[in-house]
Structure formats: structure tokens, C-alpha cells
Design goal:
This protein has about 375 residues and is of the alpha/beta class. The protein is built from 14 helices and twelve strands. The chain has two domains: about 240 residues, 3-Layer(aba) Sandwich (Aspartate Aminotransferase, domain 2); about 130 residues, Aspartate Aminotransferase, domain 1. It binds pyridoxal-5'-phosphate.
Amino acid sequence: MDERYGFETLAIHAGQEPDPSTGSVVVPIHQTSTYKQDGVGGLRGGYEYSRSANPTRTALEECLAALEGGAHGLAFASGLAAEDTLLRTVLRPGDHVVLPDDAYGGSFRLIATVLAGWGVEHTAVHLGDLDAVRAAFTPATKVLWCETPSNPLLGISDLAALGQLAHEREALLVVDNTFASPYLQQPLALGADVVVHSTTKYLGGHSDVVGGALVLADGELAGQLRFHQNAMGAVPGPFDCWLVLRGVKTLGVRMDRHSANALRVAEMLAAHPAVASVYYPGLPSHPGHEVAAKQMRGFGGMVSFTLVGGEQAALRVCEQTTVFTLGESLGGVESLIEHPARMTHASAIGSPLEVPVDLVRLSVGIESVDDLLADLIRALG
Ligand SMILES: *Cc1c(COP(=O)(O)O)cnc(C)c1O
């Protein structure tokens, strides 16, 4: 599909031409493992086995590539499966990764335990401090890993500056764009080499599927990744691909509402006497506000805050909301609340990525904002 179409048009149509055999407007769920061959090696549509390729997955991959402004999209069984396939394609034992000191806990665990066992080294650093990032590079650094906004502290890093820094040292800039989604931020245009997604979150958008994706422009690396996607086999099933495709159609309107609701929530929290600090890049007081305003179309739906009453107060708030559901994950239409130190980021205890114990993280959904505000105010007491 013509990539000059607007984002919302691409979200609904890219990779999703009406089915040529039936006219079905919605991409069918091709729930099949194999394909009839017309004579040995005579493939009808290029499909032979669904680990290698499946038409529903192809539709999703083409759509995601269009939304990120990349030439190649690859879908995986989870965000971590996408990360693992990427890292074990571009790294060799002895290589080094620079990653954020507030990276998603699962990404840190993958690099610091699984890949460490494979001989890959890493340094965790604050990506907002470009001198510290420069100092963290070694001659073996092959990947600069970036997450902006970061999870759970909503740190913002300057993608264009990091891209330049990585390329001066012939390293790849990999950007986990899960929190922003391609609607709010397009890292490839700012200098990223590969974009990573947990499609479980905003792309899927309805908390009903686990998936991941990689998007990139470089055809040679895409070919290596495509080979490993098949050779390592961490692929999503057709129904999961279909759920993500269905979610993506409404990504733009959802992100607009997530962002509007989150700003109202952040402003309320910032003025509340029980709240010590609020982390939301849409607030002018956030240290990354200007960079975020430059590289993002909106500030997203994630808000974190700490409480005057410390850890006990944080735990109490998490257990006293009713519209906000206590649970891990994020990016769905429903609002979620959680305590990162004991839940999503428990595996970071004792590491450079340990998060404050008095921190509460919100995934602000698209319910009526007055109900969200009232629920939090009631829980804050
Ligand atoms: C959830 C998440 C991941 C991991 O994705 P899964 O789909 O859970 O494997 C990676 N990065 C970020 C920022 C996430 O929020």
C-alpha cells in the first residue's frame, strides 16, 4: 500500500487488501500449518509451512512495517521472543550491549542472565546522560538499547542524539517503542536501526493477546532476522496475529484518548497532597518534557507516582481502586494499577534497575476520565 497515506489509513488498510479468493474485507485467520503444493515445490502463494510464513502473519508484518515507516516487519510470539531473536542475530559471544538503567525488567533479565550465559556483556546506564552513554561504550559494543518513555519511570531519551552516538561507533540503535506505539513516535525516522515492540500492549490494545514484533529498514539485516525467525521458531499463531491486526485498526483514536486521560490523571496527582512526585512526560515539570515534545506526537497513557506515605501507602492505593484493576501489563483499553517493585520489576531487585518501593504505576485506559479521577482520589484517601 502507498506509504504516503496517513497513519490511520495505513493502520486499517496496509497489508490488508480484501481477500482475493472471497472478497473478505477482513484478513482471514489462516488457521493452517501447511499448504497444498501443485506438484513438488509448486507453491500457490509462496506459502509452504506456517512457521516459515502464514498469510495472516504476513498481513500483520506488512501493516506494522508501514506504521513504523520501515520496509520490513517481523512478528513473534512475544516481545521477548522478538528481542531474543534480534539479539542472537546481531550479537556474538564477547560482544557488549549498552542498555538503560531503567529498562523493562524482562529485557534486562534476557540480556543480564540468558545472553550473559552465552558470553554477551552489558553496561546499564542513564540514557538521559549522553556523556555517561559515551563512557559506557567499549570496543565490543554492538548494540545501544533504548526505551523511551521508559518503564516504569517514564524517562525520556533523545533518539536523534543516541542514533548519532551509536552510529559513530558502528553500533546499532535498537528502540523498544512499546510505550509510545508508532502513532506517538517513529524511531526509524529519528535514526534507530531496529524498532522492537511488545504487541501485547498498545498495538494489540485489548489485553487479549501476547505478541512481539521487529521493524527495520535494512534489507540485509531483515533477511538474517527472517532466517532466524524461521530457524529459531518463536512465531505467533494466526489467531494472535489477527487479534493484533484488529487492535491496530483503532490505535490512533485509542492513543489520543489514552494521552488525554493520562494528562488529566497526572495533573490531578501532581496537585494531590498524598502524592510525593509524578512521572509523566506530558507535564512541563518532567525533565524530559521538551525532548518528548520534539520527538513524540503525544505523551501516552502511562503515569507513575510516589506517595508521601512511602511503600505502605503505595501498596494501599494499589489495593483500593475499583475502576483501575490491580494487575501487570499495560496498554489495554482498561485502566490498570500496579506496584512495580513487587510485581513487574521484582526481578530487578538488587540490580542497577531496582525501582523505588514507594512507586505506583498506572496504565491509564480509555474509560470516562471522571470515573478514573474519582477512583484514584477515593483510593488516595
Ligand atoms: C511487556 C514489555 C516487553 C516484553 O513483551 P512481552 O510481550 O511481555 O514478551 C518489552 N518491553 C516493554 C517496554 C514492555 O512493556
